[in-house]
Amino acid sequence: MSGELGQPQAGPSHAGLDFPNPDRNRAGVPGGVIRRAGSQGRRSWIQKVLEQITDSPLQWVTPSEVVPVAVLAVQRYLLEDEPRDTIPKPPLYCYDVTISDGVYQEKCYLDPSLNFLVYKNILKVGIEMKISRVSCLYNEKRLGQGILCIDNVHCGEALEAISLETPFRNSAHEEVPERPLRGGKSHYLALWNNEDPYGDIWLTNKQPEEHNFNNTKIISLSHLEMTWANRRNFPALLVRILHKSKLRYYGKPDKKMIEPYQTFLEVADSSGTVSVIMWNALCPEWYKSLRVGLVLLLQDYSVKKSYPFRMQPLPVDPQIKLISTMEICLNLRDPPTNIIIIPEKQVKPEWRLPKLNHRFITRSELDDMPENHICDVIGILVFVGRVQRSKKKENREDFWSYRWIHIADGTSEQPFIVELFSTSQPEIFENIYPMTYFVCTQLKVVRNDAQVPKLLYLTTTNESRVFITGHRGQPYTNDTKSTNQPSTSQAARRENQSQERDNNKRHQDDDPVSSQCFQTTYTSLSPTKKKRILQGPYAKLIPVPQPETSAQTKGNKPDMPSIFQRRESASTSTIGKARKTISDRWESQLWREKKFGLIDHLHYSHVYPESIPRKFIFEQRKFLTEQFNSQPAKYIPPEGRPPKLDDFKSARSLGHFEVTILGLNHEIAIDVAFLPMYCPEDLRTSQIDTLLTCMNYSCVYPQDGAGNDRLPGPRALAGDIIKAAMKLDRVHIVGILDICNLGNNKVEVYLHRIYSPTNIS
């Protein structure tokens, strides 16, 4: 065995397996493995493998019998450098995989050479897996202890149901909080990013408690700013939380930090506002209990000079002084900080603590907001995109998690378009769906009026917070500015009630829900999106209509297809009863001349069902949220028989287009997908003048209906796009492609945007 597993080393005393000792009474083996397995009338495959590797002189073995096991958990953590390492290595994230053979559960270490199976969403919870090679990593400090390592596997299909009643073979794995098998880390990380709190170490039990201030000396922030450099001991601070940042994980292999986390709180009293940094083990203890608006009493903190390059958020009150010369540090030790949450009923007016002042705007006001303006929004979710991931740095395993959402507030036909990054609130980020009352704070305006069409959307900042349920008692509900704006909160509430009534009526009429939709991902993997630039002449455009599926043969209306399928030509028939297809297509003369002499023709125009936005059904919200989220770290048993993705109707009625682009040297071509957004419920008045306009906006602009509200059907619009494509015959274009890895060896390539360069050198 090579690599790290080839070097036996000591693991933590609480992690690992108690291996059977042939010289001992087997009934006395810790955990009672043999006796318990025998009492159930079935021998554990896991136990047999452990005995086989114990009796083998080799460090690895091939199981004498390969039996399928179920994957119950895939958990990630950062592995520290080994003592023998002299050169720091890049972060190595390891995975512990919990399996079940029907008799016992076992937590195993996944060899890092197999990490790619997790990255590609092949190894995931809920599947059947066959292990063909295992090894042992012994604990040299304890007799008969070691870690079972998975060295080679074959991953199968998802299982319909998995029992969670099987016990762990080693009771050490049942301890709370859970511990990684290797290294000195005390906790697991979230599976797909480092910003989300994950596991049982993150406490939520901190409650307000009344405090006797008679013997408590308090100093104002402005006075502390003037005197901190000459002080050794600092009096208590009495402040209100104005902003709370998402978590920052700064763990590195060469750092022996147990819980390397950091978060920023912007706090204020009557004299100023300052940044408070919470470090390390205090974050798991306090982060989830602290929220914006709480009043804190801080004792035994430290003060240091502020970091010069960090930009503080704007103060909620322009009259309050922004203190940027110092920072307050909260630590578990050196010194151990004391944090007390003061009940709001004990807060006295004479303390003059600042009130929160949210910057709620309406969608109609957004058009006039400048670039980088900070604002808050409130409304109803009408579109929820699937979770995606983008790399923070190349050649690293660290990712940002984000998704696109649309929020309607009733003041404009256009929704807020929000790029929602993870805000360290996975309980909300992973549980949003259309028709939800949604609040998002500290958003930044992104706009480019010079671009055609104009670019305008909102993106989250480091201090953004989101809310979906339990709005009573939240800080923004007491904000006088927001409650005096009926165009935002009250309009959103009216729209919510109206849409709930409409939704119930539509279910009774068996009609599809209107334009509210979500974008699902059946594999539930956060796709890694990359952009690639491609040059060449436009060659071919084929419309790919949406065939009728099994869902429609059961009584659904045939004019609302529910799935896209790739079609080599528009006249190709599909399985089952297919709707009438759109026969328009276009091929350039250059393509006819060159297509049979290509060196390579790349086919990436297939659009998978999980990439199609679907109509939302409220009763199926739990199933749908699971479909468009990232894969969970632990297996969650389904409730009843879950529906199929194909049962949900598509929110697109135009289908997609297969676009072929020929390379500049006429030797290589690529087929990619183009998905223009068209929904009959969305009224547009602009015209399609060129395909460039259509693709640059990824949205179809139907021609003006001469004063009526009837829109042209998909056939007419597809024909207009075909005609627009013909204008690009032999035109040199530059294309921007989105490459999306859906996991499980599925890749999609979309034409994101094309340009026609005016100067070609």
From TrEMBL:
It comes from the Eukaryota. It holds the Pfam family RADX. Residues 1-35, 469-518 are annotated as: Disordered. Residues 475-491 have a biased composition (Polar residues). Residues 492-510 have a biased composition (Basic and acidic residues). GO terms for molecular function: single-stranded DNA binding. PANTHER family: RPA-RELATED PROTEIN RADX. This is RPA1 related single stranded DNA binding protein, X-linked.
